[in-house]
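Lab notebook, bench 4. Still working through the backlog of constructs that have no structural model yet. Next entry is a single chain of 220 residues. Request: give me the structure tokens for it.
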Amino acid sequence: MADAPPPPLLLFATTVLSQCVTAYIPVIMWRHRWPFEFCVTLFAIVTSVMYHTCQSFKIKIGLDELQWHRLDNIAAISCFGIWFTYLCCFKDPHVDQLVKIVTFMLTVIVQEPWPWDVRFTVAPIVAYLVCLPVATGLHRLWRHGRWPPYDWRNFAIGVSLLLTSFYFFYRGLDDDNDQWRLWHGGWHVASGLASVRLWTVVKQPINHRVVRHLATIDHE
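Model written out:
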């Protein structure tokens, strides 16, 4: 006899309410005056909440569960792209924003034809990692003999939490053994906590330098 499905309210709690910690991430973007990053992270939260709400109650809210799920995948992968760009510490704010927008566009292009193929979820994340922070970090190390100015304590804590969240996400892929979506809820909590740390890794974010520069011009 098959196990009875979990109550919808329980699924809602484990998959939607578990995302409360992620609500602080757009606040970080807003405080730094990063409009594109604010919009993408807010987009990620909204699409995830809508997807899991439809999944929990078997309903349609404008879009159905799978349509919200596809948007959720695009948003999540794009968040990795813009965070990897953030780690590059580009000096030119126009280059910084352009690269972040390009990663979002590439994510949409890759996810449209292959939304449920794990290879096309992992591949863009790995490509963004190698082409952005790894390549620029090695270039800076070769040219200047140092890595970008990171807060290594926050980096270590954030990456540890992120790796933990990946483990939770992997365990949650087996729907038969995670009917109550506890592992997936753990992914939400751990990745949210990781993001709060990881978005404070760069000691002098590019927008701060721009604001100080503009303030200097205004006083001249």
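Notes after review: Residues 76 and 112 are 14 Å apart (CA to CA). The two ends are 78 Å apart (CA to CA). Flag for follow-up if needed.
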